[in-house]
Amino acid sequence: MPRVTRLLSAAGAVLAVVAASWSPLGPVSSGAASTQAQRPGTVETLEVPVGPEGDGTEVTLDVDVHRPDGEGPWPAVVLAHGFGGSKDDLADQAQTLAGEGYLTLAYSARGFGASGGAIHLNDPDYEVADARALVDLLAEEPDVRQDAPGDPRVALAGGSYGGALSLMTAGADDRVDSVVALITWHDLSEAFFPQHALTSADGSAERVDRPGPFSSWWASTFYSGVASGGLAGGDPAMGPLAGAGEAPPDTGAAPDAEGGADPLCGRFAPEVCDLFLTAAETGEPDPELLELLRRHSPAPVLADVQAPVHLVQGMSDSLFGTEDADASARALLEAGAPVAVTWFNGGHDGATQVSVAQPQEGPPGDAEEAVGSDADQLAEQQTADLLTWLDGTLRAGTEVTQETVPLPAFSYALPPARGADGERVVTSDTYPPSGADTGTVDLPLQASGLPALLNPPGGVPQATTAVPGFGGLLAGLPTYALSALPGQSVAFDSEPLERDVTVVGEPRVRLEVTSTGQTTTLFVSLWEVRGGAPDLPRRLVAPVQVDVTPGEPTPVEVALPGGTWEMAAGSTWRVLVTATDSAYRGPTQTRADRVSLAEPALRVPTGAGAEAVTVSIWDTETLTVAGVLGALLVLLGLLALRRSTRPHPVREELVDVPLVVSGLTKSYPDGHRAVDDVTWRAEKGQVVGLLGPNGAGKTTTLRMVMGLIRADEGTVHVLGQPVYAGAPVLGRVGALVEGPGFLPHLTGLQNLHAYWAATGRRPEEAMFEEALEIAALGDAVDRPVRSYSHGMRQRLGIAQAMLGMPEVLILDEPTNGLDPPQIAAMRPMLRRYAEGGRTVVVSSHLLAEVEMTCSHVVVMHAGRVLAAGSVAEVGVAEGRTLESVFLTTIAGAGDPEHLNQVRPR
Which end of the chain is more exposed for a tag (fewer CB within 10 A), N or C? Predict the structure, then answer.
């Protein structure tokens, strides 16, 4: 089963590290001690018997009871861990609560840690029943405050897996007096098959009653982090595994032929495992799986919850978004339960980091870095918030109503901002905030590029909008080109905003889709375009899957992922629609869609409430480990970048010189010096030929000129500006290096439009007609590229490099594979481009062709420049060809037997 194998290995290690690290409080401080001797109170470890597995296997839970100092009775708190974790992740938090006078019970859920049983994904008959058994245990505990015989004063708190369990237990047991649920789901079927298409037939905007595309990345992570436990103690060739060398607990998991745990399912219950594997294989929602996931969710029981609930949701969460907290909050409020809702800058994808993109003249080492949340402040604030909630709902002796909840009914963090002391939090005394449903702003949109997109054969290549679980690490990186794949994306841009707008909620856009298929699958995201560079502030995407009639327009309203945005006056915003996304299992059938705007506006809800003091709020399951690791990776990357990139100043004396190469040197680890102190320049109006035998260092030199690889020594300046990876001045350089690449099903013109759209620049800047006129493709631009000859593809590649009419055009071996007539047609094309003050650099080993095309030459051999100047200056004259000059020049540079030495780089 190769596809299953790939699924299971995709990201299991991530979950094992990230999910196990969750705790409702986070670290007490960066130097908090973990030994019990330094903590108040005592800890007692128990083995608590609970209901057996379906086959009769007995199950006990591994439980720690943390008692406060002094005498009880005390109110009690049950802490539930995140998926893949155990009670050990909760020890510090439990001791903190015990120090505040709460008898705290931390335990490993069924199927995790040293507890027995199989993982049923919060089955009401298993995990929820287990939590109720722990409430029974507290009801018999003399040190626990009792509201009535058999009714302990108890709160449940948990994140993600533990958050859903806390809500479900409160719905199943009216003895629960308070709940704190973090970054958790409302309906698990909607989390794994998310749907952001809305229906407004009755005036209310609800999700279309159809499962969306399969969230394959998160399903793999959710599943494989513990499925590998089935291999523990198995084949030594599998390498060191969690639990290897220890006798695995009796889980009740399905045995294999030799009596061990099923190697595909590990500690998962067989009925859960089988349904997940089927979904992984097909990408389709089995009705039995949907029913299981719905039943294993808070949604069906929220009407029965009576306890006050604090819902905490992250705005950097591609697994459980703010729509989950919103759906749960509305259901709880309708049932009469007091609710407080908090949105924070974080989630399963890590702490939110928003780049501060400023115009930059120097190398990346001098750039503004991403702004994120401070872990220590988050930990301190989340501890304070939990204690405030527990003191007001559990310790207090009065009934809690919606008007008396101890935290704001709604609070949300604005995006991280440089210079702010912690998170900037806005609060409201109602949820949703008063006027939130009616306070909207319409941002006019217009198409940017072609309206057609294609779901490619086999569903690959796939767009990469973000990497689930590590979205924060991508903040500020130029990922738009990975998202807006040519031919697979459509973009709609706003005009620059006339005023500042603070967005709180789900932006919405109405599209019209005409498809060749009976079902269309799209992914929609919201980008800010700054200085021509698109950036995704909330690294989230809205999956949409709707049934359509082939060939007929279908209106589709899309709710983008919820959160907060600060849209500054003058900023431009882009709605990007893609056919694929690497985090989801989309259809593999080829499909063409035409996507336009049903309404020419992006509708954004505006915020309400008052800004509170600038503090940090709750952290997430991923902050402790993923956030710290992410910050460390970013720091190491910046340090490496600073070491490897020397800040080269702007050279004012060169502002009118298109290209200056000074002292470039590049060596490789094997000691080969591919480029050795290369210096030359190209002036306006010149066509410069970069000549040399194979292995001379031509392509390596051009890669350094383009900022694609780093030089060991030397500098490159374009119009006086230094060149480095991502340098803004590279927007004034066009290049064709090592051959063009096009989508064969698109026409030549469509390929050019798709390429230009991926740059994020406005269509009117492309100058398509001018580039096509120079490339002289004629009517061929309207034919699919698959019908092109090699020469036509080369000319289309040159036209692509000419888009925007850059001042410098760099072509690496543009005549490769062309026949003589095609080569002859290229000569006047390049000369015409240089007319009017532009510059062309052509790398080639066809000396006769260079002689007829170029005005100047640079001769390289063995990584060094042997001659540079006009064709006449290097010795070409009547009766003496460039070939003879070239051979004479390099023959005088060393042993002739090395002339054809090839060291490809």
Answer: N
For residues 494 and 565, give the distance between their C-alpha atoms in angstroms, rounded to a whole number: 15
Written as six digits, the tokens of 538 are 């909330």
CB atoms within 10 A of CB 897: 7
Phi, psi at 125, each rounded to 5° = -85, -10
State the amino acid at position 308 in one-letter form: P
Computed on alpha carbons and rounded to an integer, the radius of gyration of the chain in Å comes to: 32
Place of tokens 């410069």: 688
**Is the pLDDT assigned to residue 37 strictly greater than 90?**
no
Reference 428, options 405, 412, 439; nearest CA is 412
Task: Give the whole-angstrom CA distance, residue 585 versus residue 590.
Answer: 14
Q: What are the b/e assignments for 697-735, b being 16+ CB within 10 Å?
A: bbbbbbbbbbbeeebeebbbbbbbbbbbbebebbbbbbb
What is the 8-class DSSP label of residue 459?
A: G
List Cα–Cα distances, 219 to 68, 176, 270, in angstroms: 40, 31, 16
What is the sign of the dihedral through the CA atoms of 796, 800, 803 and 806?
negative
Query: Which residues face 529 on adjacent strands?
Result: 534, 572
Q: In this structure, are residues 160 and 22 in contact, taking their beta carbons and an 8 Å threshold?
A: yes
The 3 state secondary structure assigned to 219-247 is HHHHHHHHHHHHHCCCCHHHCCCCCCCCC
CB 108 within 8 A of CB 87: yes
**pLDDT tens column, 281-333:** 888 888 999 999 999 999 999 999 999 999 999 998 999 999 999 999 999 99
Is the preceding peptide bond at 73 cis, omega within 30 degrees of 0? yes
**Spatial CA neighbour of 804 closest among 757, 742, 843:** 757
Q: Are strands 501-505 and 563-567 parallel, antiparallel or unpaired?
A: antiparallel
pTM: 0.67
pLDDT in tens, 263-285: 778 889 998 888 888 888 888 88
Query: Per-residue pLDDT averaged across 50-59, rounded?
Result: 96
Alpha helices in 111-179 (DSSP H): 127-139, 161-172
- How far apart are alpha carbons 823 and 205 in whole angstroms? 60
